[in-house]
Design brief:
The complex is a heterodimer of chains A (407) and B (531). Chain A is mainly α. Chain A is 71% helix and 5% strand. Chain B folds into four domains: 48-155; 164-209 and 478-530, 2-Layer Sandwich (Double Stranded RNA Binding Domain); 239-334 and 448-456, no CATH class; 336-441, no CATH class. Chain B contains ten helices and 22 strands. Classes of the chains: A mainly alpha (407), B alpha+beta (531). The structure holds protoporphyrin IX containing FE (HEM).
């Protein structure tokens, strides 16, 4: 058992490294067009695009090995906690990328999609990677089917998101400041915050940082709840006292209504991540001496690709994902809920957000197919859609209490 | 998008008379407007009811519900309302015994107050949310009828346009020098790719994946059926949602039905260390399973007749003829009853032991030795009112008290006594012959069962299957049409799809290539504005 799990971790690491390598190769496929004198730009992009694709494919096979080994080793589908789910989502994103790339061999798509997978795996690894057996509520084949299929749909939405971002970076005029350029900067800042969170988590874990808080949860019995922070404590849990000696005292206290499991710590993590994102963003901006969007546009101009094509890729990825998402996140979810709780639908926050996501993409598709929203409008919606997906996966789990908050 | 709206039939130069509102001649394909832009091929330029000038209130209502814009607004409002509905816990999840009008302001302040007043605390069952869903339903019906019929008619009539304008005003268009043999080669290449070919009037139509166009309608019909399937639960007897707690060994009426359920045993199993995939994270006390072994009875006259037995577990409900019992709650080692020693003070010996449930006390118990104890009164939560009379404050056994009567040798007329938890019965009434000593406490497990009947469920699944079929048809098939016409040594080539133009361009280039013709993928796309 433990052997298999160790092999699984190895395979995941290999996949992670290959995805990172693939990102770089795709990047070279675009930016190297000029400085490589020999081949024609088109041939250069094609050749490196093929290599990038191959790396991504091999990485995906490694991750497939991870999924299989982990499944056998832990005795259940690897979608039962935040680590397993987020890495599975990365798996889904790469699968969707491989499929879409077969339809539209555009190297630039790799530059935008593979980092999503890299970030997701890194994010997943921040959570506990230990395999634990399932609590009774999660012991169901329908659950595996529901979660994996929903994740596959979400993977396709992620590709739609990446292509949407790519479209906007290429299409929005960067020679003057506008609301659109501001939103692009916000999106990049949000991504950098995620990166900041991952970097901080690993850094503080490496030095073994820990702050412990205690709070009385039952005045009669005096029962206490302890919360351990592994990141610096800026915001303490509501009504808690610091137990760990020394260090800097927390500056704020979490508001009372944040009731979720470890709400204070989650809020702290969230705020710290935004701060880290801000620092990263500011640093890059100082180095680039331009809006990051403008800098990216400048680099990617060389890609010389048809914007309509990018627009279609973003739509196509979403169109591929929509039926899968419907099946996984709504229909299989209903079947499982009927099996587990005796009702196909119960307006639990997570369920409601799956419906919200679905309705949102339905709006996107109608606006596009029936009202004729294309180009930038469509790309903004594709991005917003994935924000809703991630809201459901991260915020709802971390902030709200519900039947699904297992992480 | 401006559309042609007219009351009059449109006569084309070819002589065909088209219904009002038509934009492309049904017969020869000649554009019926004077523009230069790309043709709007949606619904093949056919007339739709919603585009006729409205004349009556019905027409206005129809036009509203047939509008995708209105539908998008409705969906968007529903979506935003649902987001607001998850900001605070809904009433059903609030996990507090406070009534909603106190809970929300008290827990969330002014925001909670407003939230409650606007009815967001019970959003998903509020009349206005349900009205929204219903309006979307109506919109689905109207939209589908409005478009599906004309679309079906238009697609069924395979269009073989003769008019050059039809070709020139398509988004994908090419004019190539060519002759009969080039035409034949292209025809062959199309056939090889399994396009359905129709020829006539000197025009070739190659078509593929037409079924895809009906995908949205199948999907929408599925959605309508889904809404209806959920509405089935409004029919009495179709839906039941209740809950019952049953102690180990106890039999209880299943609420809302004429069944009774007995909990034979309720068991909790825990993971052992070797069941942990990674022993380093093993902790004792992690639940592996909750299970109730139960027996289902039906009441016939005064008797309970067993109809089924079996286990119910989390994720594996017990089912009997559409009645489902779900394992959904557990209380372990709760105080269930008292074990009393019935003590004869005269003989200074014990007569026997009795067990009294605090939840469902028996009317009479056999003690042995010819004695029986009758339970005359039971006060789960004893208190005394101003007049000095005992009463019970609640049904929860906080301070349980019994009035018991013992009948047997020496006490043929019966002797009454009080038993109050926590008090020695000898002290309350010292003159009695018998006293009741607490010998033991009876701790038991209690299993919580959700009781469900949902006869609409198969219909929900059926409708979902239709939705899926529609989505798959709509998204994984693609409708493509290619028209080819040879005229004066020129090949006119036009193509139309409703989505994924890049794919079609690529396909066209590949087809041309296999016919020995070079077709530049980029140059065949016309970027004129859609009118
Ligand atoms: C939440 C509910 C809805 C969902 C999930 C949904 C889903 C879809 C999807 C996926 C498509 C695109 C299919 C394709 O072109 O391949 C579509 C198209 C369409 N939908 Fe809906 N729809 C919904 C509600 C509505 C409503 C209420 C209306 C009524 C106004 C409507 C009218 C249309 C129309 C007119 C099309 C375009 C059909 C065509 O271009 O041939 N939809 N719908």
């Amino acid at each position: 058992m433990t052997d298999l799990l160790a092999w699984a971790s190895g395979a995941l690491f290999a996949a992670f490294a290959l995805y990172a390598a693939s990102t770089i190769v795709f990047f070279i496929a675009i930016t190297g067009r000029r400085w490589r004198g020999a081949a024609s730009p088109k041939a250069h992009t094609e050749a490196y695009g093929r290599r990038g694709f191959l790396l991504a494919l091999v990485g995906w096979l490694f991750q497939l090995a991870f999924v299989v080994l982990r499944w056998i080793g832990s005795g259940h589908a690897p979608t039962s906690n935040m680590f397993e789910f987020m890495s599975f989502l990365a798996f889904a994103v790469v699968l969707a990328f491989l499929i879409v790339y077969r339809l539209y061999p555009v190297a630039l798509l790799g530059v935008f999609t593979l980092p999503v997978a890299v970030i997701l795996i890194a994010y997943a690894s921040v959570f506990s990677t230990k395999a634990a057996p399932l609590i009774p509520a999660l012991q169901s084949y329908w659950l595996y089917i529901h979660v994996t299929v929903a994740a596959l749909g979400e993977g396709a939405f992620a590709v739609g998101f990446a292509a949407g971002l790519m479209y906007l970076i290429l299409a929005v005029r960067q020679d003057r400041r506008s609301i659109e350029t501001a939103f692009i900067e916000v999106a990049l800042w949000a991504l950098l915050s995620l990166v900041g969170f991952i970097v901080m988590s690993f850094a503080f874990r490496a030095v073994g940082h820990e702050v412990v808080f205690e709070r009385v949860i039952n005045a009669d019995t005096g029962a206490k709840e302890t919360t351990i922070y592994t990141l610096p404590a800026l915001i303490q849990p509501h009504g808690a006292t610091k137990v760990t000696e020394g260090g800097i005292p927390p500056l704020f206290e979490a508001p009372e209504w944040m009731k979720g499991v470890n709400a204070g710590r989650k809020l702290n993590t969230f705020v710290l991540s935004l701060l880290a994102g801000t620092v990263l963003y500011a640093a890059l901006r100082v180095v680039a001496r331009a809006r990051l969007g403008a800098k990216l546009q400048f680099w990617l101009k060389d890609a010389d690709i048809d914007l309509d094509l990018v627009d279609e890729i973003s739509y196509r990825a979403i169109a591929i994902g929509f039926p899968i998402f419907t099946l996984g996140a709504l229909i299989f979810a209903m079947i499982w809920a009927a099996e587990a709780w005796g009702r196909p639908w119960g307006w639990d926050p997570k369920e409601t957000w799956a419906l919200i996501t679905w309705l949102f993409y339905a709006v996107y598709l109608h606006l596009r197919l029936s009202i004729g929203w294309h180009g930038k409008k469509s790309a903004w919606l594709a991005m917003l859609g994935f924000v809703i997906v991630m809201t459901n996966l991260i915020v709802i789990n971390l902030v709200l209490v519900g039947l699904h908050s297992y992480a | 998008m401006k559309e042609l709206r007219g009351l009059d039939a449109v006569k084309c130069t070819c002589g065909h008379v088209n219904p009002p509102g038509t934009t492309i001649c049904e017969s020869c394909g000649r554009p019926l407007d004077e523009g230069e832009g790309l043709l709007n091929m949606r619904y093949e330029g056919a007339a739709r009811r919603s585009q006729r000038r409205p004349r009556s209130i019905v027409d206005y209502v129809w036009r509203f519900f047939a509008s995708v814009k209105a539908a998008v607004w409705m969906i968007a409002i529903t979506l935003i309302a649902a987001i607001i509905g998850t900001l605070l816990p809904q009433e059903q999840f609030k996990q507090s015994s406070l009534p909603a009008e106190i809970f929300y302001p008290q827990t969330y302040g002014l925001f909670g107050e407003i939230y409650y007043r606007l009815g967001f605390h019970n959003l998903f069952y509020s009349w206005w949310f349900l009205t929204l869903l219903l309006m979307i339903g109506i919109s689905l019906v109207v939209c589908s009828i409005d478009r599906a019929v004309p679309l079906y008619k238009a697609l069924k009539k395979k269009r073989l346009p003769k008019d050059e304008g039809f070709f020139r005003r398509q988004r994908l268009f090419a004019e190539l020098p060519g002759d009969e043999s080039a035409y034949a080669k292209l025809r062959e290449a199309l056939k090889k790719r399994r396009f359905a070919l129709t020829e006539g009037e000197g025009t070739l139509l190659a078509e593929k994946g037409r079924i895809s166009r009906f995908g949205p309608y199948v999907n929408h019909i599925g959605l309508i059926l889904l809404i209806l399937a959920f509405m089935l639960r409004l029919i009495p007897g179709f839906y039941l949602d209740d809950y019952v707690w049953v102690w180990d060994g106890e039999t209880r009426a299943v609420p809302g039905t004429d069944y009774y359920v007995k909990n034979e045993t309720f068991t909790v199993t825990y993971y052992t260390e070797d069941e942990f995939p990674d022993p380093s994270v093993f902790r004792p006390g992690i639940v592996k399973d909750y299970q109730t072994d139960l027996v289902l009875y039906k009441k016939e006259g005064q008797r309970l007749v067993e109809v089924a037995r079996g286990p119910t577990k989390v994720n594996r409900p017990f089912e009997y003829q559409g009645l489902y019992l779900y394992q959904s709650g557990e209380q372990t080692d709760q105080l269930y009853g008292l074990v009393l020693d019935v003590w004869d003070k005269q003989k200074n010996e014990s007569v026997g032991r009795i067990r009294l449930s605090l939840y469902d006390p028996p009317e009479t118990v056999d003690v042995g030795g010819g004695y029986r104890v009758n339970v005359l009164e039971y006060y789960p939560d004893l208190d005394v009112n101003e007049k000095g009379e005992p009463y019970t404050k609640s049904t929860t056994p906080n301070r349980p008290a019994f009035i018991l009567e013992i009948v047997g040798p020496g006490v043929e007329t019966g002797e009454k006594n009080w038993v109050i938890a926590g008090m020695d019965s000898d002290q309350i009434l010292p003159d009695k012959r018998f006293k009741y000593k607490l010998a033991d406490l009876d701790f038991r497990n209690r299993s919580g069962l959700s009781v469900r009947i949902d006869r609409g469920l198969p219909y929900v699944y059926g409708a979902s299957a239709i939705v899926m079929i529609g989505l798959v048809l709509g998204f994984y098939w693609q409708h493509r049409r290619i028209w080819l016409r040879l005229r004066d040594g020129q090949l006119l080539l036009a193509a139309y799809t409703n989505k994924n133009w890049y794919g079609l361009k690529r396909e066209l280039a590949a087809i041309a290539h296999s016919a020995g013709i070079t077709l530049d993928m980029e140059s065949i796309e016309q970027r004129r504005k859609n009118r």
